[in-house]
Design goal:
By secondary structure, the chain is α+β, with helices and mostly antiparallel strands. The chain contains 10 helices and 24 strands. It has 2 domains: 125 residues, Rossmann fold; 195 residues, Tumour Suppressor Smad4 (Sandwich).
């Protein structure tokens, strides 16, 4: 099975071979009707400054034999005459350092990564530089909700689609303001303090969802790819999922405790995990999905998760809170009895942050922003 790209008018034929041993795909992931694709011209987004951020530790990592840049993108772009800069990460701070020095005022940035690398880039951009950045994801990570929101389900087809993009739309940001003293948490080790506000593009979560993301971030579990989330979820279900807090949307207060609490603009967190059926990454709104703790029922969380996998039918469950959050709304979450680090962990596009151990300083405010970051304008290439 292969994709053939016919580039006109140069009559350049490029064949991208879907080698299952290289890409670890199965035949069912490939739509045979897409095998032959006509590309009439290089898209405008690839005729400006093009940067490829290759997050080599995303997903299950890279090897020379499984390097999609070396084997596919580099020879393809060279054949098509697409000039680009390839930036391969070498440390946990590589993307932050790259973004803080980024100055190209009209650029396309292609991410070979998951959601977290895109988040790191956005949050580290130098706010005094004026420019326009169009972002395109090639889903290599474990969490690829941003790519899924664009209908991109595997790396090879994403590269094919990249050569056909014709639009750019605003990439809306969502601002979270945790208390001062909030720190990044990596494998349960507190790291540097978070600069406020912190922005996200696909998910801001607490309780069960944040816990399974945090607990799955170990070298051993990362080897299992997306299955690491389910393994961490099973471990979390061995203890009561009781997270004490109250939240409000404007003046509408909702009391906890909660087991699940998520804000997202996305429809899906996995190809079949329909977390927010009404979500649309191109709209400037969020959806809140939450449900309370049920101490006497051990199975209720998995019952609701099964509904999520069942086409998102959980939103009709009377126990599930499903609310649209518009640019005019203000969400505030106030933690209670959160001395334990397990109760103070939040997921921000895959990164984990931990609030300080301070009951008087444990409130977070979340609001819809726009696609501006300082004097940058951010767009989705699609």
């Amino acid at each position: 099975m292969s994709y053939k790209l016919y580039f006109e008018p140069k009559n350049l034929e490029i064949e991208l071979v879907n080698n299952e041993s290289f890409f670890q795909y199965t035949e069912e992931h490939v739509d045979k009707s897409d095998a032959d694709t006509i590309v009439n011209a290089i898209p405008d987004g690839l005729n400006r400054g093009v940067y490829i951020i290759d997050s080599i530790n995303s997903g299950i990592g890279r090897s020379d034999e499984k390097n999609i840049y070396t084997h596919i993108i580099e020879p393809l772009f060279k054949s098509l005459g697409i000039k680009h800069h390839h930036y391969k990460t070498s440390s946990a701070s590589s993307i932050t350092e790259f973004a803080s020095n980024f100055q190209d005022q009209d650029a396309t940035v292609i991410f070979l990564s998951g959601d977290t690398s895109i988040n790191e880039f956005i949050n580290a951009l130098n706010p005094v530089v004026t420019g326009s950045i169009s972002i395109y994801p090639v889903p290599i990570g474990t969490g690829n909700s941003f790519a899924l929101s664009l209908g991109l389900t595997d790396p090879l087809k994403s590269i094919v689609q990249l050569l056909q993009v014709g639009k750019k739309s605003p990439l809306y940001l969502y601002a979270a303001n945790p208390p001062k003293g909030t720190r990044y948490l990596v494998q349960d080790e507190l790291k540097e303090e978070v600069e406020l506000p912190i922005y996200f593009i696909v998910v801001f979560s607490w309780a069960f969802h944040a816990s399974l993301v945090a607990d799955s971030d170990t070298p051993e579990l990362r080897k299992h790819g997306i299955q690491r989330f389910r393994m961490a979820a099973e471990n979390n279900l061995s203890r009561e999922q009781k997270y004490e807090a109250d939240f409000s949307i404007n003046d509408d207060a909702v009391e906890g405790p909660f087991a699940y609490w998520v804000l997202t603009p996305s429809k899906k967190f996995e190809p079949t995990f329909d977390i927010s059926p009404k979500g649309d990454i191109f709209d400037d709104n969020l959806y809140l999905i939450a449900f309370r703790t049920k101490p006497s029922d051990d199975a209720y969380i998995m019952d609701i998760m099964k509904q999520v996998y069942d086409g998102g039918s959980h939103i009709n469950n009377p126990d599930v809170i499903y609310r649209e959050i518009t640019p005019d709304d203000r969400v505030q979450l106030k933690l209670r009895n959160s001395q334990s680090l397990l109760k103070r962990r939040f997921c921000v596009d895959g990164s984990i942050i931990a609030l300080p151990d301070d009951e008087e300083n444990s409130s977070i405010t979340i609001q819809v922003k726009d696609n501006a970051l300082g004097t940058w304008k951010l767009y989705i290439l699609h």
